[in-house]
Design goal:
- The chain is mainly alpha-helical and about 170 residues long.
- Helices cover about 75% and strands about 0% of the residues.
- It is built from eleven helices and no strands.
- Helix 6 packs parallel to helix 8 (about 105-115).
- It is globular.
Length: about 170
């Protein structure tokens, strides 16, 4: 299959419309695109939705994470939930790290839990230490390490630079 066959003209036209709607901060448009038939459009829409929709879009991103048919799209939803950094995403990420059939999604969900950096993820991450995938096990170690660091960080006076550093887990 040639490169042109992989990149349909319709997709590029949608990208142009996505750029226009991004400038308008059209959250509803991107919500709809998370259900588009093209996985490339869904993946891009998921990341943009997180950026422009923020906390209010956690349920939408969680639906993508838990229900999309494509593991790459689910991975992007997991990454986006982690980058948002809200506790409200933790139950969805826990479900994903423990139950998703694809290791790349479980890996990213573990990392996202570490980025959020809250103790309520420790039990699930401890279970992920027994995952069949070495990538998931390694990601759980990275996440648990960041949670331990954040626990110390949150016990003192909050420093914005330290908080920013804590989000850089390396996963």
């Amino acid at each position: 299959m040639g490169g042109k066959d992989l990149i349909p003209r319709e997709r590029i036209e949608i990208f142009h419309e996505m750029e226009r709607r991004y400038r308008m901060r059209d959250v509803d448009y991107f919500r709809r695109l998370t259900r588009h038939h093209d996985m490339t459009v869904r993946a891009r829409a998921t990341c943009i939705l997180a950026e422009i929709g923020g906390k209010e879009c956690i349920p939408d991103l969680a639906e993508v994470l838990l229900k999309d048919e494509n593991p790459i799209v689910r991975h992007e939803a997991s990454y986006s939930l982690g980058q948002l950094g809200y506790r409200e995403a933790i139950p969805y990420l826990i479900e994903s790290v423990l139950k998703d059939p694809h290791f790349i999604v479980r890996h990213e969900s573990a990392i996202a839990l570490g980025v959020i950096g809250r103790k309520e993820a420790e039990e699930a991450l401890s279970k992920a230490l027994d995952d069949e995938s070495v990538e998931v096990r390694d990601s759980a170690i990275i996440a648990l390490s960041n949670i331990a660091y954040c626990e110390q960080l949150y016990s003192g006076e909050l420093d914005l630079e330290k908080l920013s550093f804590a989000r850089k887990t390396g996963g």
